[in-house]
Amino acid sequence: MNRRVSVLAAGLALAFAATACGSSDSDDANADTGAWSYVSGDGKTYEADEVPERIIAHAYAAAALMEHGIKPIAVYADGPIKDDVGLQGVDFDGIEVIGETWGKIDVEKAAELKPDLIVGDYWPVEKAYSGVEDGVEEASKRIAELAPIVGPAQGDSIVDLIEGYADLAESLGADVDGGSGADAKAAFESAREAFSEAAAAKPGLTALAVGPYDDTYAVAVPKYAPELLDFQEWGLDVIVPEKPDADFPYWQSLSFENADTYQPDLLLFDDRNYPGNFETLEAQPTASHIKAFAAEQYTEWPAYWLHTYTDYAAQLEELTAAIEKADPNIGS
């Protein structure tokens, strides 16, 4: 999104500007003038005369802000919130829900709420924020006319994404160095250390992240899955597929006849569709050709939804337990 931002909705109280280059220290700006400034995932600096208060956010972004005490007035989600593995335990009581289907947002309701700011992840591959990507219905994309959209970029690490939301929360007035957010970070750091120790104890162990569905055995490409890049950084050998799909390089799509192309020691199922994707693979005659599956060495992988230290710590603990139990000689 390379346009300069202007606020088009009537009744908005703040005057925003976005610049394509340069940045300013949000803490200094807020302390000296009461103004607000944030360097967003698209590389632009967004500024306002007052700190935004009426925030609409993608549900995952909302969870990240709420870990630091910043509560939005409305959220939009990619599916039913009650069924979303990435939103379990998040208390949206008192928050308006303006969408629970990917690509569909009730912009009319959003406009009635008179937001100061829209918050979501910035996706570098699509060059768009959550809610206005390619494939979203055109009527829903009009949410971008109500207020500026900001948020940290999906990149090489979930930690960077979480810290990006901490920076945004701090710019909005949160105390990110104290309270529940700080406690969650400490718990995460402990879980990360345990994960690294478990991976180091199994130097030959390989893992493969998959999302079987319908007639396709989809293998995740770590380059576009920052949590998988984190696992690699922390010592787990996550297999990189050789031929990502040209039109959507997040995955390499294989037929089930070729599902044994890669032979990991540990199979990681996309937890957004689990156990359905497990059952899809289990029903295939070739499932037994995947040695890790036959040996029952599999677990779930938190695919594309991690936004908080609380969730990351919990997921790392489960993965650590699976690594500790796994035989590193199954796939060889």
Which helices and strands appear, and what pairs or packs with what?
Blueprint: E1 16-19, H1 26-33, E2 36-39, E3 45-48, E4 55-58, H2 59-66, E5 74-76, E6 96-97, H3 107-112, E7 117-119, E8 122-123, E9 128-129, H4 138-141, E10 149-150, H5 158-171, H6 179-200, E11 206-210, E12 217-220, H7 226-233, E13 237-238, E14 251-254, E15 266-270, H8 276-282, H9 291-294, E16 298-301, H10 309-325
Parallel strand pairs: 4-5, 4-7, 5-6, 7-10, 11-13, 11-15, 15-16
Antiparallel strand pairs: 1-3, 2-3, 8-9, 12-14
Helix pairs in contact: 6-10
Describe this structure in words.
With 332 residues, the protein is of the alpha/beta class. It has two domains: 16-175, Nitrogenase molybdenum iron protein domain (Rossmann fold, 3-Layer(aba) Sandwich); 181-325, Nitrogenase molybdenum iron protein domain (Rossmann fold). The protein has helices at 26-33, 59-66, 107-112, 138-141, 158-171, 179-200, 226-233, 276-282, 291-294, 309-325; strands at 16-19, 36-39, 45-48, 55-58, 74-76, 96-97, 117-119, 122-123, 128-129, 149-150, 206-210, 217-220, 237-238, 251-254, 266-270, 298-301. The protein has a five-stranded parallel sheet with strand order 6-5-4-7-10. A hairpin with a 4-residue loop joins strand 8 (122-123) and strand 9 (128-129). The protein is globular. The termini are far apart.
DSSP helix count? 10
By CATH reckoning, the class of the largest domain would read Alpha Beta
Major sheet size, sense and barrel closure:
5 strands, parallel
Strands of the widest sheet, in order across it, are 6-5-4-7-10
Distance between the termini: 46 Å
pLDDT averaged residue by residue: 89
Q: CATH-wise, what's the superfamily of the largest domain?
A: Nitrogenase molybdenum iron protein domain
Overall SS class: alpha/beta
Task: Count the domains.
Answer: 2
Which band does the percent of strand residues land in?
15-25%
The secondary-structure element order is EHEEEHEEHEEEHEHHEEHEEEHHEH
Spans of at least 5 consecutive residues with low confidence: 1-16, 19-32
How much helical structure, as a percent, in the residues?
25-40%
The CATH topology of the largest domain corresponds to Rossmann fold
Number of strands: 16
CATH architecture of the largest domain: 3-Layer(aba) Sandwich
